[in-house]
Amino acid sequence: MNSTTIENISKYEGQEVILKGWLYNKRSSGKIHFLQLRDGSGFIQGVVVKAEVSEDVFENCKKLTQESSLTVKGLVQKDDRAPSGYEILVKEVTPVHIAEEGYPISLKEHGTDFLMENRHLWMRTPKQNAILRIRDEINLAIRQFFHDRGFVLIEPPIITPSACEGTTELFEIDYFGENAYLSQTGQLYAEAAAMAFGNVYSFGPTFRAEKSKTRKHLNEFWMIEPEMAYVDFEGNLKVQEEMVEYIIGRVLENRKIELKILQRDTTVLEKIKAPFPRITYTDAVKLLQDGGFEFQWGEDFGAPHETYIAEKYDKPVFITHFPTKMKAFYMQPDPNNPEVILGADLIAPEGYGEIIGGSERIHDLELLLKKIEEENLPREIYEWYIDLRRYGSVPHSGFGLGLERTVSWICGVDHIRQTIPFARTLNRVYP
């Protein structure tokens, strides 16, 4: 008899199989038990008919509590009403462990704080499971996208001696008597790797100590940060478009059941094809002012501003050429207008805000030194970074994609804390 997972159950229609998993829920009608089973790969209904099984099997089903672990043997049958398209006519049930009564997460409504306190159990539920499986698909798609294009994966350090983007958002640690910080970004290190390998990307956790409580912020999250030698501003945007289109395509192709569980409107995602529309920061400011917003050139966009701009398009939109003073010291000013940078943020549709920020990087030594001085950065800490402009400097570009924000948008999830296995927010470090 074949042992299989729920995800692969379609291969065994009309055959008897063995499933190993847990009982998500149960209901009975006296002569039939309906077992809602999960095995980590999906959910399926097992039907236990009293007249078709031994008395011991039927009695064992009565003893099963929510989240008991068990092994099931049964016949795979087509069922178009089920999310998986199948159900199992159960022949045998073998309990592995009968869970204690009083499982914390029942099928009733629970408050978010309670659910986050029990995140280790909440992720077993269909919607949370679907979100994290889509996250896994996006993770794999990103790696495949870059691998197929000859990028080399480089892992930057998590402990760094300096800030990359701003000193107010750093988690400071004692590093054997010296001040060090949890990394805000792997970008500077990826730039060094790009000068060695050409095209690289980093994929890892980053940390921001900002005291934000919005639905779009975490204090620990994952970033994908490519850096590309001999790639200019235009080439940078093209890679971003292709990557986002590729990710969406992979999720639509491979995670249909999960998107259905989340009731995601996939027609919105199906429209995501390159090229993406663009609007300059200056034109976006005018758009906001014409729309009744009190907004001045040089201010940063908030969530309402990004949402208003995004509503004008049915695809992600690039906002380009931000004021130089708003952005990080390493971003290349536009040669035609040094007041703005050759950079862009990619704003997702449906109010999900910025998912990518990127730019062409400064490659001229004197200009980089000038920027470091203007921003009063400690030059000695950046000497290794300055070396990249001393020895074989070339025009180069890169960007950072926030994994959780991307998952949130593709899944249609309200709050980013649901898109990571164990969220770290302003008031949460447990479990």
TrEMBL record:
<dbReference type="InterPro" id="IPR045864">
    <property type="entry name" value="aa-tRNA-synth_II/BPL/LPL"/>
</dbReference>
<dbReference type="GO" id="GO:0004816">
    <property type="term" value="F:asparagine-tRNA ligase activity"/>
</dbReference>
<dbReference type="InterPro" id="IPR006195">
    <property type="entry name" value="aa-tRNA-synth_II"/>
</dbReference>
<keyword id="KW-0963">Cytoplasm</keyword>
<dbReference type="Pfam" id="PF01336">
    <property type="entry name" value="tRNA_anti-codon"/>
</dbReference>
<keyword id="KW-0067">ATP-binding</keyword>
<feature type="domain" description="Aminoacyl-transfer RNA synthetases class-II family profile">
    <location>
        <begin position="132"/>
        <end position="421"/>
    </location>
</feature>
<dbReference type="GO" id="GO:0005524">
    <property type="term" value="F:ATP binding"/>
</dbReference>
<dbReference type="GO" id="GO:0006421">
    <property type="term" value="P:asparaginyl-tRNA aminoacylation"/>
</dbReference>
<dbReference type="GO" id="GO:0003676">
    <property type="term" value="F:nucleic acid binding"/>
</dbReference>
<keyword id="KW-0030">Aminoacyl-tRNA synthetase</keyword>
<keyword id="KW-0547">Nucleotide-binding</keyword>
<dbReference type="GO" id="GO:0140096">
    <property type="term" value="F:catalytic activity, acting on a protein"/>
</dbReference>
<dbReference type="InterPro" id="IPR004522">
    <property type="entry name" value="Asn-tRNA-ligase"/>
</dbReference>
<dbReference type="InterPro" id="IPR004364">
    <property type="entry name" value="Aa-tRNA-synt_II"/>
</dbReference>
<keyword id="KW-0648">Protein biosynthesis</keyword>
<comment type="similarity">
    <text>Belongs to the class-II aminoacyl-tRNA synthetase family.</text>
</comment>
<comment type="subunit">
    <text>Homodimer.</text>
</comment>
<dbReference type="InterPro" id="IPR004365">
    <property type="entry name" value="NA-bd_OB_tRNA"/>
</dbReference>
<dbReference type="GO" id="GO:0016740">
    <property type="term" value="F:transferase activity"/>
</dbReference>
<keyword id="KW-0436">Ligase</keyword>
<dbReference type="InterPro" id="IPR012340">
    <property type="entry name" value="NA-bd_OB-fold"/>
</dbReference>
<protein>
    <recommendedName>
        <fullName>Asparagine--tRNA ligase</fullName>
        <ecNumber>6.1.1.22</ecNumber>
    </recommendedName>
</protein>
<dbReference type="InterPro" id="IPR002312">
    <property type="entry name" value="Asp/Asn-tRNA-synth_IIb"/>
</dbReference>
<dbReference type="GO" id="GO:0005737">
    <property type="term" value="C:cytoplasm"/>
</dbReference>
<dbReference type="Pfam" id="PF00152">
    <property type="entry name" value="tRNA-synt_2"/>
</dbReference>
